Amino acid sequence: MRVLSRGRNSMSAVAYVTLETALGCFTVQLQGDRAPLTSANFLAYVDSGRYDNSSFFRIVNPSIQGSNGADGISVIVGGTRPLAASNLPKIALESTLHTGLQHRHGTLSLGREDEADSGEGEFFVCIGDHPQLDHGGSRHEDGLGFAAFGQVCAGMEVVEAIWGSAGLQEYLSAESEVRILRAYRVAGGV
Asked: Which UniProt keywords apply (predicted)?
């Protein structure tokens, strides 16, 4: 497995990305100054068009799926699926311990597998505050958490509408997935 681990100065400017979905648009502000590797990875997926025509394919909603589901977190998960042939190389985990970012309402974070350095193109947005996803949290046995790297700055109502579309299944059927029509950079945010 090849894992990219670029220097911490690989990205310094704040960047903005809009995701057009079947339920509307929302914009995220990336914290490239604090999470440069993860932000650069997300932008590589955006710039290469890998998020265009992808989807939000998993919605974790404990109120529907039971209080034991996924440590009580509420998130929408989208982008590319783990280990997809078109995914870019996996990247090293930028822990919230080092970035100082936290998993709060509207936080954009990179998905990972059981191994810490396994982030690819799967991302999620938090609905509510979720410290169990930060370094030292309970979501993974290793306690390393996930790599928070951005924040929704416009269109949070669209994120909440996607989350609210959850049915009884955490992993959505193909016809129930919420399509990401395209993802693109925007100047200055909203």
From this structure: Isomerase, Rotamase
